[in-house]
Amino acid sequence: MITFYNHLHAQHQGKFEMFRGELVPCFEVPARADHVLAELQRRQLGTVQAPRSFDDAVLERVHSPRYLHFLRNAWADWVALDPANAQRDALPSVWPTRTLRSDIVPDNFAARMGLFSFDAGSPLTAGTWVAARTGADCALSAAEHLVQGNSMAFALSRPPGHHAGADFFGGYCFLNNAALAAQYLRDQGFARVAVLDIDYHHGNGTQAIFYDRADVFFASIHGDPRTEYPFYLGHADETGVGQGLGANLNLPLLRGSNFDAWYAALEHSLQHIVRHGVDALVVSMGMDTFEGDPISGFTLQSADYLRVGARLKAAGLPTVLVFEGGYAVAEVGINAVNVLEGFKGA
Ligand code: SP5
Ligand code: ZN
What we know:
The chain has 346 residues and is of the alpha/beta class.
């Protein structure tokens, strides 16, 4: 088993996110990935490797050039407004909602932040670009590992990616690591790929990127968007559009759902994926389904993740696992590595 580890991830270190009219400490912290790495090493589960760096053209297979240009330069633009900004996170505060225009990229920095984002919970920091870029390289390196004929790879990317769309950040996500891996597999000859998103939150970015396509099947098991973030996508009636009709499967579960209900949804989604006839699987591996997660509402236990890994393996597909959410920091390493161990042992 191979893990591609984003050794620059800690350079993305947000201070605060907006919650109920206050700035509260970020949930998405560097220690999350550190715990996963430490647990991998403690259990001696395979090897850890730095990713190789991929060309920007590979990112442009998923993200728009104007968004990538914004993201690459955002920190310098922010500090240019006021040197004191170097000590502050950048957060958006204004957005082009319905009836406003999003075709013109504003000269004003705050306006650009809003154009390219959808929440005020995802601070942009000095190291956001380099961390997100290296995280994407991990997902791409893991996909490349499958192209080279291997059956599995783990991308220990941070920041996470599944809420990021073709041209927006949000939900702690900047580059969509899972979508980049799936697109890379397509471009390197896998005819059909599935992305299975098991993060507590619906993978709105990934869904949107592939919504009109039949060659990338998207399935997601998540908290019901009527009550759970990201609220505005992830309902069961979203089944794809055009060529993609039938290639999108959302399985929202009520807040409070337990492992039995969750596992039934996993079974259902994997049967759909296999029926769709795919050649490879990308898993958005969020660990925020854990009972102890501070911002989520399912009740999975640490031991359950061994069964999750074993069931993913039983699908019998070349598989890239991509780390996403999971905010019970002390347990996230045990839980994530349980998935890997379940996968390996099955
Ligand atoms: C990748 C991922 O899991 N992103 C999740 C983004 C969730 N952002 C909204 C968090 C709302 C925080 N609620 C605080 C509850 C404190 N008791
Ligand atoms: Zn999540």
